[in-house]
Amino acid sequence: MKTTDLYATIRDLSDKNEFFGIIKLIEKQKSPDYALTLEYVRACVNAANTVQDGYELMERANLGLDSWASEGRDDPNWLFLKGYILFKQGLIPEALIRFEHAQRFVSVNSGDLMGKVNTMLELCRTRMIESEFPGLAVGDQNIVSSHIRDNFGEYVKLASSFNVDILRCLPHEDHDYQLLVTCGLSGKRLNVPQGFDVGANSRLELSLALPKDYDFSGDRQRNWEVFLLISLIEHVISSQNFIGFGYFTAQDSPFSPVTDFRGAMLTAMGAYPGQAQSAVLEDGSVTHFFQVLPLRPVECIYRSSHGALELLNLFRQKNAVLTPFLSDRPDYASGILSKSL
Fold first, then answer.
1. The pTM is what?
2. Which of 121, 186, 194, 333 has the most CB atoms within 10 Å of its CB?
3. How far, CA to CA in Å, does 48 sit from each of 8, 45, 138, 201, 232?
């Protein structure tokens, strides 16, 4: 097969996500050169991401890269692929070195490669911060878990993420809904603005109230609210900024294809008395419990130009039900935004 025809076939197979077809095609070639080896490696990596156990494919990709290590040492394409394989193998510091090196050589005209390198750099840095997060000391863990049981009800452990437990407090007579509460996130000491008391403002736990009949299926699309909570846990752990009441975050796309919610704000746990919303740890510092409030698109726009209290006041004017969170609720800022801005 002519070289031009070979690469045209590879592009066609790639467009159809037929990565195993690319692998078989290139393996039939005698002594593939550097460029063809990179195509082979890319196909192996993509194929590995489509199967449950892609270890063997990643190893084949790794061997292919290592056979051209000298040629690839300053090539951002080679460095990106090497970094990605190391990342998937859990070797985050080594992956970070490759991505940083790739960033030095990648061209602004390289298509989406620069974006991919920057994305993986951010992921590596986040993972390194998260991997170093110890969670709470045993004594403080007991204080927080006891506080949750005493103030929010009996719970079962739903999941864990980076040494933080997500506890599911069961519905009871006073609160006929399910309450997810983190236990361990307050092990992260947040940076506090100058002039604020560090001991009183640097620790937090998160909560999310869901309907009594909420189905915990474990599906990322259907249970997007749970995965939003998990992503916020990771965000707090890796953040260098202060996070507290009114903190707002949003993204361009929805959290899931089944919803248009794309933002979240931290509020007080309005359904609970003040003493339930904080706990004192062994060193005398205070951890605050905040409620995660998912936001619809126009609410996100409104919040980006208004304060948290203004948005909460808007919800009150609309008699909005915020606890528990209802995924079918309206966008309460719709129709208000043009009058407010």
1. 0.69
2. 186
3. 23, 5, 39, 44, 28
